[in-house]
Structure prediction request, 131 residues.
Amino acid sequence: MNANIFVNLMHFVMVFSYFVDIGLEKEGWFDPILVIAALKAKLSSYGVQFVTGEVVGFGWRTSLAASPVGPPHKRSQLVTVHVRTEDGRVYPIQFAICVNAAGPEACNIARLAGIGVGDRALALDLPIMSR
Ligand SMILES: Cc1cc2nc3c(=O)[nH]c(=O)nc-3n(C[C@H](O)[C@H](O)[C@H](O)COP(=O)(O)OP(=O)(O)OC[C@H]3O[C@@H](n4cnc5c(N)ncnc54)[C@H](O)[C@@H]3O)c2cc1C
Prediction:
């Protein structure tokens, strides 16, 4: 099947499933695997690349920031996420915006990014963790 037809068909299935009441107990339902497959297909058609792996760390860039009231101070900025892929190698992926969507692991991922460690402004943990 032509990739575009597949993507459009999946799009239709998503919208149809969302709006039409086809549950046996008068409730709507949708197939989450199909929705994700459709979403990935659509995003791929826009050129998005997917990487399967585990986030194991982050990389920072440190620079000197000028200050109007005192000497320049050191400023650290997250610039890469380090992902271990199935072959065991760790790849840095550069980003402008990074979304932490790790569910109950979100707190641990945040710690890798320096949130919830130390005693300064970012000392508070992200309050999303396993019960
Ligand atoms: C038993 C059970 C039944 C549920 N039933 C329902 C229900 O019927 N209806 C409902 O609405 N909700 C239900 N929920 C809740 C629902 O599953 C969650 O609210 C939802 O999945 C949260 O989505 P999420 O994307 O935030 O996180 P998740 O779905 O937890 O996704 C987080 C992802 O991050 C990945 N990840 C974690 N650490 C790393 C790492 N270091 N590197 C890379 N990836 C990582 C994980 O592998 C996972 O794929 C249920 C939950 C449970 C446990």
